[in-house]
Amino acid sequence: MTEDKRDGFQRWAEYMQFKSLAEACFRFELPITIISTSVMFGFSALVILSKRLVLTTVILSTFLWAVCFLLAKLGFIGQREKYLKQFGKAAYRVAALRFLLPYAAFWWSAASMPLWVPGERILSIIPFSILGAFMLAVLLFLTLKIQAVFGMDRLSFAYSYFPQEARLVKSQIFEFLRHPVYAGWIYFGIGFFLIRGTFTSLASLTVNIIAISLLAGQEEKDITKYFKDDYVAYKKLVPRFIPKRPVAFLKFLFK
Hints:
- This protein is an all-alpha fold.
- The chain has one domain.
- The chain is about 75% helix and about 0% strand.
- The chain contains eleven helices and no strands.
- It has helices spanning about 5-15, 20-50, 55-75, 80-85, 90-110, 115, 125-155, 180-195, 200-225, 230-235, 245-255.
- Helix 1 crosses helix 7.
- The two termini are about 20 Å apart.
């Protein structure tokens, strides 16, 4: 673990009041794994039992994203002032365990659905699987960059509760993408779709892209209120998810 990653994890662990990595895994990561695995198996069974695989996939994928939005908007963000007044410094820990934990499980289930949803393959396995593997490789290196830039504390929305403690983030990555984290989740879904190559996988990927685009659009509305013309100018120069200079972007990722 690099120093930046270690520092980001340490700050997050302090907000969560975890005493060790083992406690963080047991109290946070393990429940996420159990919930997401249960959702995947249960929803896979529903798709298999359905006579309309694609329609069922769209409905279930939409449901997962709706739950994510409700947990984030009404739960984690919606309860912020109440929790800060009631729990003080422990407010983030309480909100994270009640809302972010299930949010992460449902988010992972929705984002990975192009891989695990059942269906009959429609794409040739060799060329498209190779392309899918390449997309996942891009995602891996993008994830490493994202972790180095943002840190666990920022990726886990700690500064939504304590904005006064946030650090200014500056990175070359923002010269290529306005939303590198969301872009990573889209690449993730595309890679899984190319590997699975089914209509159901394509349907879930489509819902994922729509949901992530809506989320990014809402964030940009909020950002524009604060930065106004500067952010409008930035939006004209830098795309949301797909870099204008793909070769330079790949060089940046792989260096």
